[in-house]
Design a protein that fits this description.
With 142 residues, the protein is mostly helical. The protein contains eight helices and no strands. Helices cover 75% and strands 0% of the residues.
């Protein structure tokens, strides 16, 4: 075996070890399965974006824009939450994908996790999250 091949193998095991330490066993296995199925790393994130944009009736540019107002704030939070919970992406992955700070990604996830379900507006946000998840399931089946 050549020295180059040995280095590549060492780098592979190092990357797997780092991934295990950072995201855990279940998410590492999920990432490897997605890769072996030929699913591009960013493609399922784009499908989630499409699902969320349909639910909120906004273009993708607005979803990944910088506004802190409705609907972008809630749509982005739903996108982060679905990617984190349903697709098992780490917050650092989402931060790298959006070029947003870890703080922004973490706050968005937390917004949905802690979101109340008391007022009519609250219920609308939960409905849009549910609608986005159903759309995502439909798109991923194809």
């Amino acid at each position: 075996m050549t020295t180059t091949k040995i280095r590549e193998i060492e780098n592979l095991f190092s990357a797997i070890s780092d991934t295990l330490a950072e995201v855990g066993l279940v998410q590492t296995i999920s990432i490897l399965k997605k890769g072996s199925q030929g699913v591009l790393w960013k493609s399922d994130l784009a499908v989630v974006a499409k699902s969320v944009c349909e639910a909120y009736d906004i273009p993708t540019e607005v979803l990944f824009g910088k506004s802190r107002k409705y609907p972008r704030k809630y749509a982005f939070a739903c996108w982060v939450y679905i990617c984190y919970v349903d697709l098992n992406y780490g917050l650092s992955d989402l931060s790298a994908y959006t070029h947003s700070s870890m703080s922004t990604i973490s706050k968005a996830k937390q917004l949905i996790e802690d979101y109340p379900n008391e007022t009519t507006f609250d219920k609308k946000i939960h409905e849009k999250l549910s609608y986005s998840r159903k759309n995502l399931a439909k798109y991923l089946e194809k």
